[in-house]
What does this fold into?
Amino acid sequence: MRNVYLATTMMIAVGGAAGRATAADALKLGITGFYRAGIGVLAGGDSFTRTIGGHLHSGLGNALRRSSAFQQQIRINFTGETTLDNGLTIGVLIGLNGENLLAVGDTTTPQKQSYADFSGRFGEIRFGEANSALRTDCTLDPGNVTAGFGVNTPSDGFSFSNAGNGVKTVNGVIPKTPTRVGVTWFGSIGTCHGIESRGTKIAYFSPSIGGFTFGLSFAPSGDTRNPGGGYFYGTDLKDIKAANVLAAATNYIGDLGGVKVTAGGGGEWAFDSYDDQGNANPYSPAWYQTGFQLGFSNGIAVGASAAYMANYNVSRYKATDGGTVSPGLPGDDGWLAALGASYVIDAWGFGLQGIYSSWQVWNDTGHDNIWGLSLNFRYLLGPGIQLEGQVAYSNYDANDVMPVGTKGQPLDYHAVEFDGGFAINF
It folds into this structure.
């Protein structure tokens, strides 16, 4: 009923806004996007290996890994909009991951955000594979001035830390299979992630009223996209960790005494959660977030953001040391907090950012703490083109509770990385 009610409400809103639509210019698509490159070199970092039967069985941290790497990220966006004679604007965004175009026949799809939107004086309605209202209106700290780096990880970027990384071998030889060990990889923690990402959803965003806006979104199948065109038939099975996900967020942008203020917060809740066998989980995940930024006329900005995630191990962070989800045992929760400051002068920008997070493991019998620091900069070479760099420190403090035979994180990992790269927007 929740699904039907929300979908019906949104369709009525679109229909009412359209009224007596008349002919308008046909919607035509243009191309935007970006190319980003990153080079990372690690100094230090811990390694742990395990040998079984005389063969190297597995490793953690820097074990069997290089001390440097190259990464790239390519995004191609097809965008366009048209305005009808009654004022209703209809637009589309189709985002493609340029590194993965050969996988277009895969049901996982190489798509990023791809949706249609209907906007007017009533606000905006979106339908498709879009970010949730929480993630769209989320306020980060201002401590990252780059497109590719930072420790409060953006949705797009690079991470070279091996904190939380593992590897398995077959009888001590290749193939070496990368794995996650513990709560998660260092590069995937951030205060604006939420419990689902780009699942097919419907969303509403209000117009600005005195600087305030709010948004709502609903995704019946969490992260699931279920593409048509012969890739998927019927409706979803009940095997989704975060199902019937509702997100709500509010945001404020204004000027107070010459200081630009940006602040916001919200929550994201899964009303249902299932295991791989279709049984209902006794706990469902939820995410709560808040943040603010203060921007001054001299180019300095300061701010902070924080998030709390309930039952994280049945959603985005499927920890190998997360506790069993069952009645009578507490679910594992986590929290994150980030501080940041930046200074921009002419073509230069400098940022200082720190993040700290703590995660319950083994049904709240232990904690993993993951944190990091970043000193980053960027230099504008021209419109949409910039050089970027970072010196970062990452730390994974493992819990002291690791039952025998489990996939825990038995080492404390810490490393310094030196990163450089560039970003080109088109």
Residues 1-22, 103-109 have pLDDT under 50 and may be disordered. The radius of gyration is 23 Å. Helices lie at 2-18, 133-136.
